[in-house]
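Form 7-S
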Amino acid sequence: MFFPKLRRNAKWMFVFLALIFGVGYVVFGIGANQAGTSLGDLLSNQGGGDGVLSVSEARDRVEDNPRDAEAKLELATALETDNQTNEAIVVIGQYLALRPKDQDALRQAAGLYQTRALEYQRRAENAQARATYRSVGSAFVESLELEEGQRLGEDPIDQAVAAIASEEVNAANQESSEAYANATQMYERVVALTPNDPNAQLEFAQTAQQAGDYTKAIAAYERFIKLAPDDPTAELVREQVKQLKQFTNPGTG
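Output:
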């Protein structure tokens, strides 16, 4: 389990980069219904397969020892490496039921939820693009003119396509919002275990911001500044807090 643990811990080297590229536009580019490059994108792209069991090998170990927590963690990691995010979330949840205070596993679960959120964001974008393409095409079609200047109404097929696309977008955005909320809950558990860890506060803040929970994000960012006022990222975090407060209270600042 050395390599999977090293891989998970190495992800947090990218927090500083995420902040550098995020300040100035992250308030408007990261949210429950927004897509783009975010902390979750950076973290989800740092995976690797070194030292990780195959899914079939990990499944065999769990089947041989259903109550073996380490076997479940190995399976969750194998599924994550194989991009089987939804099942990985289920299995990491089973592991956390046995080891609820494992901070690395809580972070891993948060990362999985962030990956799921991004997947649903992309689904929403694709559905919206299809609907936009359809509407642009139909805009160039002359409506049928009837007698005495009357015209036939909108094509019922276009209406049906637009309605389906709207349902797909709403459903995907809802799933994405729930996934970000679950990721935030994982980090709430981390900071509850390590309230004086500035890195945990920063991770929590970023995730809450992705979830659109700016109140929690601001509180966690401010906690980070209090714990690590001289950290190289502290000034960037102060600017982020300022922007979030202006965003949530437009008349202030």
